[in-house]
Amino acid sequence: MRSTQSSTSQREGLQRSMKNMRSDRLKQHPGNQADQKQPSDKKTSSKISAGGEEPIRTVMTKGVDGIGKTVLTQKFTLDWAEDKDHQDIQFTFPFTFRELNVLREKEYSLVGLVHHFFSETRAAGICRFEKFQVVFIFDGLDECRFPLDFHNNEILTNVTESASVDVLLINLITGKLLPSARLWITTRPAAASQIPPECVGMVTEVRGFTDPQKEEYFKKRFTDEEQASRIISHIKTSRSLHIMCHIPVFCWITATVLEEELKTREGGELPKTLTEMYIHFLVVQSRLKKVKYDGGAETDPHWSPETRKMIKSLGKLAFDQLQKGNLIFYESDLTECGIDIRAASVYSGVFTQIFREERGLYQDKVFCFVHLSVQEFLAALHVHLTFFSSGVNLLSEEQTTSLWSKVFRDKPTRLYQSAVDEALQSPNGHLDLFLRFLLGLSLETNQTLLRGLLTQTGSRSQTNQETVQYIKERISEDMSPEKSINLFHCLNELNDGSLVEEIQQSLRSGSLSTDELSPAQWSALVFILLSSEEDLEVFDLKKYSASEEAFLRLLPVVNASNKVVLSVCNLSERSCDALSSVLSSQSSSLRELDLSNNHLQDSGVKLLSAGVKSPHCNLETLRLSGCLITEEGCASLASALSSNPSHLRELDLSYNHPGDSGVKLLSAGLEDPHWRLETLRYEEAAATDHQSVEEVE
């Protein structure tokens, strides 16, 4: 039998060995762009690490593609490996779903899976993890190819018992398998719902660059101050580009294009729409290929037959896999699209900034586009090329490649309308950017940029006007704010900003009358407010209309804002129901909410409390002064805070009727170590001396 000292020494040796290997691997496999400054997230890492305040078993981090989720997990692991942070953790096991997918036909025990990816644990003979502080990182849930069925799944509690990898994952996530472990899962928002909310202790979101950080990126990227200022000014003139630049990868694409354009162009405008930017990006990469690999000169035509073939093959792959929701591709996916794996390796070697071959940190080759938006652009280009060369509408359920399809082909308008319809029907918005690119490609000015790749052009100004009109009609319909906002981006790609300009003009002149706004104009106002970082910092409903109708129309802005002022806005329990949904939303940014002097009453507070109770609610300040709340409403709030005590620090109930029992219930929270409540204000509305009572823990 080994001595305790010997076992401890061996464990520490293994930890040191694993940390060194992890550090070496991560330094050899940096994020997509090494020069990207990624947003940090101390809150997430402190909750995962047991050294943090009240560690949570399972943390989910959401963020759009390219926002920095993978880099965040790599930084966590690297800091641990280099003894910079998280030293309470004995083992960190980072997995990616793109690597786990390869094992979907195989069975492993949890120990066996760890041994497969981290061979040093097998060599050390470690077969149990209950005695260690272990963190499992699962990066890229949106790339998962497993059927994660949490409702009909076998129960597994033994770490040495074998099962399919999806069964292991489900039991690990639900806590039936190795409940002592901590989990960190990253995902795009659209895939977050694959895991039941009750299995997730906390949800964080990587928001990307703020406006100052966008400027900082370009100032660091370009040493020439004048050039950096010119690029920053140009980006600010385009709403779409400025919004997209919160994504670090998009900043890199923009910098790549604008640097080349400023170097080579002779007059003319810089790209100002998303489609223009990606067309220029494709042209830049094709030009680099021609000079670097084909031995051509800068002035030679860059659309060689070989280049056209590569772009068309990659476009077909992009579209077929986008339809399936796949962001990464294995050999079987390539074969389905008619691409030989050797050809794919050539493509990745030639178009290094478009298509990438990866072997992962451990083994198994996979392919992907450098960013999802590049895949979406090439998919749109494929649909455009196919339609105007063969008459086949790939978005139509009835497709034919016969001679008759060329004679009686669909009108371009039908192609674009069917694309709008299909994107609006998508439950998770996976075709939103694709639609913007496809519509952008309909403009003659953009087709001119691709002359040589496009053998035929199509779509005239009349077609574009018909498409614009169709989009405006759809905006007028009752649809989710996210969908209407994307349609405004589509109008921008078609160079039509009439609806937005109309509302902006009213805002500038102070003549905006919300009583007369049409549904489309309300949507335009939401679009404008969501595009403004300043408006989202503090949103005051009274600036637009102190009414319940305005509140419900502008609910997406409430959801995206940090501080929301709704005092004296004639709100009722109907508004409380809507606010409850906002507070329960995983995507909500709301931290400070002022509902003072509205007739909410106990019935409204009860509805509001359901949102406060949600584990996704991160509200820190709640002001309910003068809302006709009695003991019953206080009981609802106390119950909600008992269920979710971790965030609310300030509660204002002054000028209400809490009664002794209501005050007692909430005051108890000030003494409860689990509650974060620091300030509780209460005052009987009928008190003659109007003395405010403030308790501070």
Automatic annotation (TrEMBL):
Span list, region Disordered: 1-55
Protein localization: Cytoplasm
Single GO molecular function: ATP binding
Classification via SUPFAM superfamilies: RNI-like
Family matches, as SMART domains: LRR_RI
UniProt keyword terms in alphabetical order: ATP-binding, Cytoplasm, Leucine-rich repeat, Nucleotide-binding, Repeat
Compositionally biased region (Polar residues): 1-20
Top-level taxon: Eukaryota
GO cellular component: cytoplasm
Domain NACHT per the UniProt entry, residue ranges: 57-191
Protein name: NACHT domain-containing protein
